[in-house]
Amino acid sequence: MERMTDTAETDCLFCKIVAGDLPADVVETTERVVAFRDIDPQAPVHVLVVPKEHHGDVSVLAAADPTLLAEVVSVADTVAHDLADGQYRFIFNSGPRAGQSVFHVHGHVIAGTQLGWSPA
Ligand code: 5GP
Ligand code: ZN
């Protein structure tokens, strides 16, 4: 089992997945980032990409560690090319009014089908 990072929060679902305390279908991992399939997929490929360190949302991560945010984006791109045809949407819900429900920053890789567009 992987060691919890120094920033891990005990009540955080995604910190528990990162630590291996909860199961997940992991599709890609780097030293600082993990990607795993969403439990309730909205498309043929629906993968969540998270930094191993706990940051609440993308605003916090962008301010704290832009290099890590860039690695999250890079892993998302790798996943989209490995699991789909490299055409994808990468979404961060930031804040409850934007639909964020898990407060450990994660981007959604959505791919594998023709996507429509609705901003809300
Ligand atoms: P948010 O609404 O915060 O942008 O996205 C949270 C996502 O986490 C949702 O798409 C939801 O389906 C997913 N999710 C919630 N609990 C779990 C879980 O235990 N395992 C996995 N793999 N995904 C989860
Ligand atoms: Zn966390």
UniProtKB/TrEMBL annotation:
InterPro entries: Histidine_triad_HIT, HIT-like, HIT-like_sf. A motif (Histidine triad motif) lies at residues 104-108. CDD domains: PKCI_related. It comes from the Bacteria. Gene3D superfamilies: HIT-like. Residues 13-120 form the HIT domain. This is Histidine triad nucleotide-binding protein. It comes from Isoptericola chiayiensis.
